[in-house]
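Contributing new records

If you add data, match the layout below exactly. Sequence lines come first and carry their own label; structure lines follow with theirs. Keep one chain per record. Anything else will be rejected by the validation script.
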Amino acid sequence: MNVFTIKDLENLSGVKAHTIRIWEQRYSFLKPQRTGTNIRYYSNDELKTVLNVALLNKFGYKISYINKMEVEEINKTIVSLSYGEAQQEHIVNELIGYMISLELDAFEELLNDNIRLRGIETIINDIIFPLLEKIGILWLTSHINPAQEHLVTNIIRQKLVVGIENTVANADARKMALLFLPEGEHHELGLLYVHYLLKSRGIKTLYLGANVPLPDLKFIVKLKNPDYLYSHLTGAAANFNFEKFFQNLHSGIPDTPVIISGPITLTYKKNLPSNILYMPPLGNQVPPFMSA
């Protein structure tokens, strides 16, 4: 069983930890356990409960009213919400729940049903991307087992690859981006999302993939002369040295702009070399300077 901290619940639900503590004191739907040092921790079911309660509260239901509802009634009420945003958030929350409990058939069936109904591009932007953000949160806080992540991300990877393959490349594209992950970084989903996003916006892409040694990267850059390099860092190895990575990129490929995105970049606060640019957390738009 996974266990989660109150900070995990805050990050995943958008509800402040202070508010979650108030809910615990006043209502009965949340009963965390405590460690020997009196630190709260939460089960899979409690995470799902907080996600559902937060969703209903966000769309107008009072906590005192939700507290009186049975689980089945909460689920039915969520399904009945007419707001498109509410349904998107509900689907993402369901997928998180299926991932945590390793209900892989249900996970893939839910994704496939929505792809059939709404199309792969809509699902990539509205469902898969927000899901990747939440998986990234769980990964960075070490509150997801690597086996859970690998099993579900392989399913998501298949959907992203289908989306990329179904996107018609722009034969007249004037800009080209080379996508890679450095040695020690194997979490490819964010980079695949960037690949899909750039290709769908008319930018030519070269996809090197994960765990690319710097000499190999330099060889391709010299051969193909891309306009940009792009790397999305999610969870590199513990011994990964950001400063060395940036300096090697700067000294080895000084004339090509390198765009770095991903949640792990938020931990590096030093000045960047002149050809390294940070992107904020991914959205569904490419940077204006990369427009085709």
